[in-house]
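Supplementary Methods, section 5.1.

A reviewer requested that the exact input to the structure prediction be made available. We therefore reproduce it here, unchanged from the version used in the analyses.
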Amino acid sequence: MNKQSGIHYLSEHREAADGRNVPQEVVRIRDTVIASLGDLLQGAFDAVDDSLFELANNARSNNEQNRYFEAMREIRIKRKGIERQFQTATSRLFVKPPATGNLNQETATRTASPDSLSLLDNDDLEEQVALNAMITKANAHFQGPLIQLQARFSAVYPDASDTAPVNPMAPEHLCRAFSEAIQSLDIQIRERLIVLKQFDRYVVSNLGMLLDEANRILTQAGIVPNFRYQGKTGQQSVSKPQATPSETGRGTTTVSPGQRAETAAEDSALFEQIQQILAHQRANNGRASRHQDPSVRVVNSQELASVITALNARHSLPESGDLSEGEPITLDLEQLVRQLLAQQQTGSGNTSPALEEKDEDLINLVSMLFEFILDDYNLSAPVQVLISRLQIPVLKVVIKDKSFFSRSGHPARKLLNSLARAGIGWSSSDEKARDKLYNQIHNIVHRILNEFDGDIELFETLNREFEQYLERENRKASLVEQRTRESERGRIKSRKAQEEVDSILQEKTAPYQLPESVQDILMNGWSRVMFLAYLRNDADHRWTETVKVVDDLIWCLHPHEDDEERDQWVRVVPGLLKTLRAGLKEVSYNANRLDEVMASLKHELAGAFRTRSAIQPRDETRAEPPGPETEPTTEPNGDDDAAIAEFMSQIDRLNTGDWVEFRLVNGTSFRCKLSAIIREADCFVFVNRMGLKVIEKTRTELAHEMRKGRLTLLEQGALIDRALNAVVGNLRAHSA
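The structure derived from this sequence is encoded cell-by-cell as follows.
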C-alpha cells in the first residue's frame, strides 16, 4: 500500500491507538502532542520551501538552481506523506515507548561509537552528527521538564523501571521518528540538512510548551504531583502527595519554604500595618472598646459569617442576566451588614448588636479594596463591572477566612488577580457575545454568585480551570504574535530599504537630465539590485558597491577630455557594463529588453567618450516648483521639544509585553500590547491580545499621543497587591 495514502495513515493510527490500553491522561497528552507537532511541522516545511527558493534565486549556475528547484518539488510531493508517517510514529511511541536513552542497540552503538561512525559514508555521517547535535541540545535545554516527565511516565507504564525509564516525548524518540520519515526523500545531503535544521528550529525548539502541558496533565491526575529538581548537578526527588489542595495543579514550579515564609511575612506585615492605622483612627475618634459597654452585644465572627451567608444575589444580579451591563455597582457593605444584624436581632433584650473591631476592620478593608477596583483605570470597563459584583462573595470569604489579606496565595485572591490580569487587554469595543474570554470571566462570576456557600475550594477550582484556559489561549496568541512580529520586521525593513534606495537615487540623479535608457536601468532595474543588497546587509559590502555603480555610471556619461580621465574611463566602463548586466539578470530584469537596453547604454557611453556629453545638467529654475505652491518651511519649535521630553522618557521605559490604551479622536479606545521595538526603523509595533497587529508608531508619535492624553500606560501588577498598597497610602494620608 502507498505509504503516503490517507487510508494507510488512518489504519496505522488506529492500530497505534488500539494496540494497547492507554490511560486517559496519556491519551489527552498524545492527542495534544500530535496536533501541536502537526502545526509546528507545517511551519518547518514552509520554512524549508522558503530557504530552498532563496538558494535557487541566488544560485551561481543553472545546474545549481535546478538542483534546488528539484529538491523543492520532491519535498512538496512527499510532504504530506512524511507528516502522516511522523504523526503515526509519534502515536506509537505512546502505546509502547522505548526505554529513554536505549532506542535499540544498533542505533545506540552507531550514535555513540566513533568506530561505528567511521563506517558511515560522508553524507550519512553528516546527517547523523546533525541529528545527535539536535538531540543533545534539546536534552540540555529542556532537562528539568524532561526529567520530571520521565518520572511521571515511568509511573504510568507498568513495563518501566528505574533502570529502564520511559518517556514517549523524549527528543531522541521524536527526532529519530522524523529522521526515519524523511528517508523517502530523494535529495542531496545539503538539502537534507536544511530540512533537519528547520525541524530543529520550528519543532524541537518549541517542545517546551508541550512538555509543560504534559507535566501539568499528569500532575493534575495525581501522578507524582510533587517533584523537586535541583538542576543539572543536584539531586532529584519524588514524594507522594502531601500538598494542600491550594498547592496542587501549579505546574512544575517549586517555591522553597524560605521564599514562602518571606512572602507570607510581607503580607502579614502589610495587613498588621493596616490594622494599626485603623486602630489609631478609632483611638483618635474616642471610640471605646465595645467589650466594655454593657448595652452592646458583640457579634462573634461565626455568627457574623452565618448572617452574611443569608445575603442573596439581589444586590449583584441584573434582570437582563448580563453581569457586565451598566456601571460598576457600589455597595455600602458595613451598612448592609448592620441592617442584617438589626433584622435578625431577637431575644437579645435591650442590647444592640455590634461588630468586633477586627471584623469591622475587615469589612471596611473590603469596601476600600473595591473602591480602588472601581476606580482602577487599568481594568477594562466590562471586566470592572463583572468584578464589582463579587463584593458580597469576597466579604463572605474574608469573614470566614481572615488570611485573605495576609496571604498572597489565598485562592480567592489568586482568582481576582487572574481575572484582572486576563482582562487588561479586553477593549470595550470587543464583541462580548462572541468573545471567549468575556464568556469565561462572565461564567466564573456567575458561578460564584450562584454556587458559593462558604467553601473556599470553589475559588481554587475556578482559578485552576481559568488558568488552564488562559494557558491554551496564550499559547495560540504567542504563536500568532511571533508570526506577526517576524512579518512586521520584514515589512518594515523592506520599507526602510526602499526609502533608502529611493533617497540615494533621487540625490544622485536629480541634478541631471539622464537619457531614457539610463533612467530606465537605474529606476526600474538597478534600484531592485540596491534593494536586495540593502536587505542582505552582508559582510561583502554589496550595498556600498551598488551605490558606487550609480556614481561610476553618472561619471562615465560625462564628457572627459583629459587624457588621464579618458584612460580611467576605458578601465571603468567594461567592468561597469559587466556588473550592470549581472545585477539586472539577478533581479530578473526584462530579459527580452536587456540586450536592447544594454546596447543603448553602450551607445550613450560611446557618445560621451567622443566628448559629446550624454548627460546634461537639469534646469534648476524649472526644477523648482512655483513659489505660491511651495509649502512653508516649519522651523523646529524648541518649546515643543521641551514639552515632549518628559513623555519621551516615559516612552523609553516601555518594554515589549507592556499594555497601553489608545484613545481615538472620535472617543473610542482600544488596548494593545507592545510586541516589538524596531530601533533601526524607529518603529513600535503593537498587537491585540490575539497576537494580531493593530497599530505602529514612532517614538516621537507615541510621545505626542501621550502628551495629548490619547495614550495611557497600563499597570500589570497583581490587582489585590496594588489595591492594598493604595489603601495603605490613603490611610496614611488621612492619619497624617
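Residues 1-19, 102-120, 228-262, 621-636 have pLDDT under 50 and may be disordered. These observations are discussed further in the main text.
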